[in-house]
Amino acid sequence: MKRSRSTMLSAAVIGTVGLTACGGGEGGDVDSLALWLPPQANISDASDWAPILENFEDEHGVDVNVRIIPWENYEEAYLTGITGGEGPDVGLMYAEMIGDYHSQGALVPFDDYLPNSDAPDYLYLDEGQVGGEQVAIPLVVGGARVLYYNADLLGEAGVDEPPQTWMEFLEACQRLLDAGITPVQQPWGGHPGMLNETFFPLLWQAGGELFNEEGTATAFDSAEGLAAAEFLWELRESGIMTEAVTSLIGDDVEAQFTQGQTAFVFSSDARYPNFEEGDFELGFVDSLEGQTRATFVAADALVMLDKCPDKQLCADLVAYITSPEQMAQFHQLAPYPPLTEGAEYVGPQVFESFYAQPEIQRSLPIVAGSSSVYNALHTNLQQMMLGQKSPEQALTDAAEAGDRALENAQN
Amino acid sequence: MTTNRTQASAVQADADVGTGRTVGKPGRRPSKLRPFSGVWYVMPSLVVIAVVIVTPILLSAYYSLTDYSLLRSPSWVGPDNYRTLLSDGAFRQAMWQTLVYTFISVPLQTVLALVIAAMVARRTRHRFGAFVRSALFIPVIASMVIVGSVWRYLLATDHGLVNTVLGVAGIDNVNWLGQPVTALVVVSLVTVWKNIGYFLVIYYAGMLAIPNEIYEASSIDGAGGIRQFWSITIPSLRPVTLLVVILGTIWSFQVFDLVYTMTAGGPGGGTVTLVMAIYGAAFQNMQMGYASAMAMVLFVIVFLVSFAQRVLLNRK
C-alpha cells in the first residue's frame, strides 16, 4: 500500500483551475445530507456519530443524517436505496462496490472539489484512485490479516521460532502434525470474503496480481497464482488442514484457535482481543515470505454519490470527517490506524510496527466486476480443496469465468 | 304496468336471495342494480394486487428482456438473457440442485407430517398430545437464520453433536456440510425438520374434519388401525395432501435463507439454489436483467405447480 501525496498535489492544480466554477456548490439551499456508514468497532448507532459531526452541521447549517447499514445487507441496501432515489449523498464503500458504482456513473470523483475543501494530508489516497481519478477517500484502513500462532503448541512440537517463510511454515506444520496437533484450519465453508486471509496474501507473497494494470482482465492464472494455489493444496493434501475445512466458517476457525485446538490461524488484527483471551501465549507474524512479503489490509472509503445536491458541500463533509481532529474522536470508538500524516496511532500497540510497514500492506484494487471475479475464484478454489479440480484447473476456470464477468461489467 | 314491474322486481329479488346479488329491503322499492357495481367492492383488493403483485411481475418480465444493472436505464436486448440461460452451466446446476432439494424434502415432509398427525390425532385426549403438537411447531416459528446456525453447530465435523453421537456407535466423523452431496442432503433434511410442524397442523385439522362415524363403522366391519389409515384417512385427506405437496414444492423452489446460512451455496457451489443464483446475479453481479430472466423461469415453474394444484383439486 503506497502512501501518496503526489495525487493531492496534482489534484490541487486541477482544482485550482476549476475553483471559480465550483464556487459555493450547485445545490443552493441544501439543508440536509444523507451519510450511510456501516457499524465499526464500538460504533453501532447513528447517535455515535453526532459528536463527530456537530461542528460541521453548525458551521454549514445542514443536518447530516447518518444511517448505519448492517454489514449483512450492505450491498442490497445501497443498490435498492440508490435505485429508489433514497440513497446516500456520501457513503462508505469497499473496493468491490466502488468499482461497479464508478463504472456505472453513480459516483462523482473528488478531484474538482477536494482541493477547495480543507483536506488534510492523506496517507492512503492511492487506494481510492481509479484511472487517475480520486473516486474515494479511505476512511477505515485496517483489518490486517496476519498469521497468529499459539506459542505453547509450537513449543510442544519443538518449534522454537515462529515461521517467517512458506517453507518454514510447512516445516512447522509438519512438526505439529507429527506431534498430534492440528496445525492450522481455514474457513473454506465461508463466503468469498475469506479469500482476504487465505488466497490473496499468498498470491501477493508469490509475486502475483489479481488483475492486469488496467483492471480489464484477471491476472491470477499465472505461475505466481499457481504457486499460491499449490501451497494451499499442499496444506490440504498433506493433512496439515483437515478435510473439515470445506465446512468451516470464520467463527469456527477462530473458536478452534482461541480454545487451543489449532496452532496457527490467518486472521484479522481486529480479532487480537478475542485471541488474547485464550489460555496460551499468543504471537503473530506480519506476513509469511514467499517471493516477497505482503498481506491484506482493508481500505474502506468514503464516496460521493451522484445524487448529492451540492457536490462541494459533500466533498467538504468528507474532508471534515477525515480530518485529524474528527478522526481522533472516531478512533476513540474505532481504533484503526491513522489516515493522515502525523496523526497519532491509537490502535493496539502490538500492531503499530505492522502499520509502519506500508510496503507489505495490500488492498484490493478498485475494478468493476471484481465481486463476480472473487465469487468465481472462491468457488473454484473450494472445488480444489474438495479435490474436484487441480490447482491449474481451478485457476484456469476461475480466470475464464472472471474475465467474462469483467467484460460484462465494463462494457 | 307499474304494478307488474314491481311484482316482477320482487320476484327477481326473491330469486336473488342466497345468490350474493344485491336485493332490496322488504317493503321498499328494490334498488336498481348497476352494471359492474360489484367491481367497486373489490376495487381496494384489486388495486393492492395490481400494485404489489401484477406490476412487479410485468416489470420483471420486461427487465428480463433488457440489459439492466439498476444503476443505469435498462436497454432492450430481446431474448438474449434467455439464450444465455440455456448455455449457463451455473444456472443449470442451480436448477438441478433445487430439483434434488425439492425431491428430497417434499415427499419426506409430506409423509412424516401425515404419519405424525395421524398418531397425534388418535391421542387427542392424551396429556402429551398438545405438548407434542406445540413442540413440533416450534421449528416453524424459529428464524431461518437461527435454525441454520444451530444446525451448523450440531453438524460440525470435529465437535458437532451429530458426529459425537455417531462416534459412540463407532461411526467415523462425517463432513456433513463440507461435501457437496451430503451438504445438499443435510440441508434438505433440516428443511423437513423445520417445515414438518406446519404441515402437521394442516393434516391434523383435516383429520379432525373426518366424521368419526366412518371409523366406527369400519371398526364394526373389522378394520384395524392400519387399514383405516390406508382406506379412510389417506383418501379423505386427498385435498389436504395436494395442498401440502404444492405448498412444499413452491417453498422448496423459493428456498434461500436456510441454505445461505448453513452453506452459503458451497462447498464448490454444490448447494446453490435457484433463488441464490438470482440473488447473486442481481445484487452481487448487478445483472438485474439476467436475474429477472431467471426469476421469470422460477415464476413459470411456480405458476405451473399452482395451476396443477387447481386442476387436481377440481377433479372429482
TrEMBL record, chain A:
Region (Disordered): 390-411
Comp. bias (Basic and acidic residues): 401-411
Name under which the protein is recorded: Extracellular solute-binding protein
Domain of life assignment: Bacteria
Transmembrane segments annotated in the record for this chain: none
UniProt cross-references to InterPro entries, sorted A to Z: Bact_solute-bd_prot1, SBP
TrEMBL record, chain B:
Keyword annotations of the record: Cell membrane, Membrane, Transmembrane, Transmembrane helix, Transport
Domain ABC transmembrane type-1: from-to ranges: 95-309
Location relative to the cell: Cell membrane
CDD domains in the record: TM_PBP2 (cd06261)
Main location: membrane
Entry's Gene Ontology BP terms: transmembrane transport
A GO CC term attached to the entry: plasma membrane
InterPro entries per the UniProt record, alphabetical: ABC_transporter_permease, MetI-like, MetI-like_sf
Topology term for the membrane: Multi-pass membrane protein
Residue intervals passing through the bilayer: 38-63, 99-120, 132-154, 196-215, 236-253, 259-282, 289-308
Family note: Belongs to the binding-protein-dependent transport system permease family.
Name assigned to this protein: ABC transporter permease subunit
Species whose genome carries this gene: Phytoactinopolyspora mesophila
